[in-house]
Amino acid sequence: MSLSLLNRDDAPFDQQFWNTLDDTIKNVAQAQLSVRKLLYTEGPCGLGIQFVPGNEKLVEAFEGGPDISLPQGVPLVQLSSSFNIAARDIEAFQKAGLKINLENLINSLLKITTQEDKVLLYGIKASGLYGLMSYPEALRMKLDKWEQVGDAVESILKAVEILDKEGFHGPYSLALSTNLYNKLFRRYPNTEIIEMDHLKTLVTEGIIKSAAIESGGVLVASAQEYASIVLGQDLVAGFEGPSGRDYVFTLSETVALRIVVPKSICVLESPV
Predict the structure, then answer these.
(1) pTM for the full model?
(2) Which domain holds residue 120?
(3) Which of 52, 74, 188, 222 is the most exposed place for a label (fewest CB within 10 A)?
């Protein structure tokens, strides 16, 4: 995104201040965003990109006339959140070199990263936008209960076999709800081997804990050609202006989930 659209040139701050904000955004985003660890990310392509191109769909055909088709584009969702930084904190940072208080920025970051994961996983139902877990053409499997050590590996092996039958023979990536992920640290009896290590021999491209997954998980064949995240504008802070003794900033991004081959995805549903 052009820095001119972020109004940074209008702000009375030096480049070190902006570098500090940018580094904080990058570090927190890398730690928090779980779906970006699961899928490949394309972009950023620019704020002006509003749709990801999709397949052409025939909508009407006239006898003896031309066919009519429309592209099935996926919109990029815009997420934004405003935050304040006290003028006194900025002055202390720029003049005295004191570490700046970025609590408000981090709170905004946590809101947006949580929402990004939820949008990519579940979509936006009211807008007819699907996510990875709600995509209607994705494969689905009900998990067995993970009561004993080894149950998790057996369950994921069944999901791998489902993808195998559809022609996706790996490598694979896996995202799990927090309660299922934490169960992978149980040890096999009379050994030093935990189930996580055992599962990594099957799922080689990453096993990710995702707090945004309400229950269950999702196993995907790892290839950018099957599914990816498309960024228009990556997470970045812009300047809004003064407000009393504070300065106001906006944190924003645009993002879309691009699914090309739905059957490369196996949604893992929790047992009732």
Answers:
(1) 0.91
(2) 3-131+227-260
(3) 188
